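Annex B. Sample input.
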Amino acid sequence: MADEKVGYSGTERAAVLLMSLGEELAADVMKLMGPKEVQRIGQAMATLENVSKNQMGGVLGDFISEVDNQTALGIGSDDYVRNVLVSALGEDKASGIIDRVLMGHSSKGLEALKWMDPRAVAEVIRLEHPQIIAIVLAYLDSDHAAEVLAMMPVRTRPDIIMRIATLDGIQPKALMELDEIMERQFSGTTTMKSSNVGGVKSAADILNFVESVVESEIIDDIRDANNELGDMIQDLMFVFDNLADVDGPGIQALLREISSETLIMALKGADDAVKEKIFSNMSKRAGEMLRDDLEAKGPVRLSDVEGAQKEILAVARRLADSGDIVLGGKGAEQMI
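Annex B, continued. Sample output.
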């Protein structure tokens, strides 16, 4: 459980709220969530302990305040969802997100893959054409896709990433055929929409979640085949050191979403610029306590540090996708 230095993360607050509802209501709510949300909240529910009445009251109070500012008008309408996303993100940035959201209403085969263990997904698609594998991975959440990619034969990984990077939208007929392939493993029928999945950014997002050694090997192989494409992918990747370029409000929003244990582990392998960015956006007392904890932390495995950093980066990308923070990697658009 997060301590007072960082407080409950957003996931932990959601877990506290659901536990306060009782088993039946909590189950009904979780049925409406996606696989990643269910997994994150389930893990938080399993690890939370000694939640006081005051803490629970605070979470419930925050929830009530949020609900007071919300409206249910238009919810459930595809046109409403499309208009809101376009207004918030602009036509270009929203197009891929819109298609992925609305596609989920009718796509049974592809949606089923999102709920499957990465190893099981790898087994389903292993013998398919690399272009099919690329489309499937582009459709999955980036961290999920990275785990599936790691289970593909080493020699095929660069080819798959290059195909993802060069995807330029998917036609309705192609999506229908792909969903039929997936439906061979499942059941049901579907009517497909076109989707703007894939592209260089999608390839970069997936590689962000791959182990560092594997990531370097894939980038090197891609550069051997297409140096320009390799540079384009790497320029769009956002790594932990890039957190130093995130503004203060963005760092503060990020800190509210992560536990102190994860933060300490991640900072063990961070450069001084990132550490100072974190410290400068905490209260003096919290910063001093974090420095003490870092100094007291003994030697840790590099894999644990990288795992913690990737966990934080996953939260950062989620906040960026929702518009709560702006990431400032070297491939990011300049603001004026």
